[in-house]
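User: Here's a chain of 641 residues. Predict its fold as tokens.
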Amino acid sequence: MAKKEVRTDLWVFTLLNEADIHLDPQGSTIKELNDALRTASKRGTGKAGFPEYVGVVKDYLLVIEDKADLSHHIKFDGKGLVSMKTSDITDYAVNGALFYAKHLVKNTSYKKVIAFGVSGDQKKHKISPIYVDETEYYRELPEVQSFISFNEDNIDEYYIREILKESTDAEKETAEILKDAATLHEDLRNYGNLLDTEKPLIVSGIMLALREMEFKNFSIEDLTGDQIKTDGQKIYDAINSNLQRANVSPAVKKDKILGQFAFIKDTVKLNEIDAKLNKTPLKHFAEFLNKTIYRSIRYSRSAEDYIGRFYGEFMSYSGGDGQTLGIILTPKHITQLFCDLADLKKTDVVFDPCCGTAGFLIAAMHNMLAVAKDDPAQQKSIRRNQLHGIELRPNMFTIATTNMILRGDGKSNLINDDFLKQDPNKLQLKQSTVGMMNPPYSQGSKQNPDLYELAFTEHLLNSLSVGARCIVIVPQSSMTGKTKEEQAIKENIYKHHTLEGVITLSKDTFYGVGTMPCIAIFTAGEPHPADKKCKFINFEDDGYKVAPHIGLVETESAKDKKQHLLDVWFDKIESETKFCVETTVESTDEWLHSFYYFNDELPTEEDFDKTIGDYLSFEFSMIMQGRKYLFDGGDEDVTDK
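Assistant: Prediction complete.
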């Protein structure tokens, strides 16, 4: 076997290990498969033939054939089908993989086979999956960058989404959340007569009251519409009890939160029995929330920010004040990506100074608890001591605190204050090792330079421990230094902190908002070395799409694309410059992939042939139209016309 082929085999083996998939090389330890392969010669001799890798994940059979040369990836026949000609089966990766898949589905009990043709190397490659069923029918599937979608955790979801073309449980859950939010918003409007800012608060408050059911201190059945002790008073008392139970301190903080919920007991319409409902609106809301999302939040291990989802939906229905105040809630897949990029450890201390509904902190807690799953003492420390946040707006602060309490954070280390007015030297005493932030957008100006997204970023960097990882999501324009004030901030950041890289995101990341975002990653407290190579990544094609009436949804390729991003970010694989450019930077540069990218791909022989072919076709067409003069270097003889 040629040395290039061996290198490709080893690279594919590495990809499989990273995806936690264990297949056998050149044969199988499964007797049924090995017996079938004894008659699987690609040359049709009836002798043995072995793919590069074969094995089973759950009830799916995976088969891999690879070639070192990209030009030997796939060969089609005259009908546009994958050629089953002997020479093509032998010489091309996809053709060989399909041959083995058909042979195995015919000669074994496995009826769901996914074959992969792989060609190239880690920097430039193609991985093409093909699904084959017991009828030997095959379907070509979209190319992938890794095998992450095919491990035990993900393969069922891939099969449902990409092969059956059905909705997954996660997609159904998202659709249900949006449906529930729409229903509840309609009811809040019809029966509550509430302000936009009060709608998410009533959800938060009732959630805290429902938590008291576990301690037999609250019951939905007790909401009878009594006018002496109203339903609102009963809910308010339950909220108070739960805040005490959650150790919310100091007292002034608890009083601030309770003050936000006072309207529940004081709004007459909420506490009167409605003729249509035959109960108070508060009881109706409590029943609805208990049935729909309370159990999901309380008992699931999901990092989903359910209350944040409801808040976002309420604002979209209401045309609320969120966007005018620069409030853009962070989608779940971005909060999870932050955790992945930070490579969270169980000992990290995470700080979000603009925490909104606590989406980043919820995701961080979810990930850190998973890392510390066998360490109860560390899990307790994570909940009580290692998650910190600041939120300026009282109603958002209350929602964030509720969110963390419902997740059992143990202490709720959130404060209601203005982050920009905090002394970074005092904030450093928290010894935060990871900073995460989605700051208010479009609030800065020459008159208020402290409100630029970059100003928030610099303040966060100054507030972290030396060597801490800092990750922010900001408009792409922030990375360009479009004003003198922002350029000065960039220079300060460059002098005192290290830029690790910037990831350009899809324009639909904040669907419906119209912001072009990017993720910037820094190391705090360490001046940027002049020879430091930063990564600038174009991740606009992230595997998410906009679905009508739903918004941004995950497609079957999202996990694969994210894994490729992480592999490149953590130097596990190289990448083409159209995806990632590694370069030194100056503070005056535009810190974006588009600024540093140049097309360094050499044209292939196929590109040359196509260009020549296109030119000859054009020349022939012009000559047939009597325009040969275009190629003679002379002028048209108008006297002949």
